[in-house]
Amino acid sequence: MYECANRIEDLNRTELLRYLTDLFHRIVIHYAMWFTEVEHQLGREQAHEVLKTASRRSIEIQLKRLSRHFGFQMTNGFPALLYDMPTGKLLELIDDVAVNWLANDGVWFQAVEFSAGMTDAKRCNDSCWARFSPFEAGTIKDFLDLPSQPGLEGLKRALNFRLYARINRQSIVDEGPDSFVFRMDECRVQAARRRKGLDDYPCKSGGLVEYTYFANN
């Protein structure tokens, strides 16, 4: 494939579409590399401040340009098709996007597992959570306009806005004014493994990293 292509214009329709999707992929990776490098150069706190500015502007620019190609109108900064979508349908879309995130996580885990083994896959997974949990906590705090130290009530609110909140069934039980128990009552990954007759995935090490880093931020 592509052996006769010396320019983008030489690609056939299927190849052009593959090239187009690869360009979106490059944007995502380049975006992540920018954040990683700014965090490395300027520190995590300043990187998150830069991210807030860059992400809002980037989304605005890209949606505006895509709207011209696909012919959709914009309403209050969002595609009108989404803005006018019934709430139930919009929640279904949010659920599908959350599940896509989980599928992406699983794809990466298995790609490492099949090439390097379970130990390295778990090591990469746990290290990834050490970076993603603070990021997700920061974006949720910005979204909810929470203070820098929102306390247990702020933490409970933030847990309800995680990606996992749209995927798994979770609950919170108050123990007193200074503590609560967060429970993952039904995990989509573990439920799928049980349906296939597989043992539960040993997620404790990743969970300790994931929730500790989330709560600390």
Write a brief caption for the model.
With 217 residues, the chain is mainly α. Helices cover 68% and strands 9% of the residues.
Task: Report on the architecture of this protein.
The N and C termini lie far apart (48 Å). Helix content is 68%, strand content 9%. The model has no long low-confidence stretch (mean pLDDT 92). The protein has eight helices and four strands. The chain is mostly helical and 217 residues long. 6% of the residues are buried. Helix 1 runs antiparallel to helix 2. The protein folds into two domains: 1-84, no CATH class; 86-217, no CATH class. The strands form two sheets. The protein has a two-stranded antiparallel sheet.
Based on DSSP secondary structure assignment, what is the total number of beta strands? 4
Query: Oligomeric status of the shown chains?
Result: single chain
Please state the average pLDDT score.
Answer: 92
What does the radius of gyration come to? Answer: 20 Å
How many structurally independent domains?
Answer: 2
**Which structural class best describes the helix and strand composition?**
mainly alpha
What's the SSE pattern? HHEEHHHHEEHH
Number of helices: 8
Segments where pLDDT lies below 50 for 5+ residues?
none
Beta-strand residue percentage: 5-15%
Major sheet description:
2 strands, antiparallel
Classify the helix fraction into a percent range: 55-70%
Assign an overall shape.
globular
Write the layout of secondary structure elements.
Elements: H1 13-42, H2 44-70, E1 74-75, E2 78-79, H3 80-83, H4 87-116, H5 118-144, H6 151-159, E3 169-176, E4 179-186, H7 188-195, H8 204-215
Antiparallel strand pairs: 1-2, 3-4
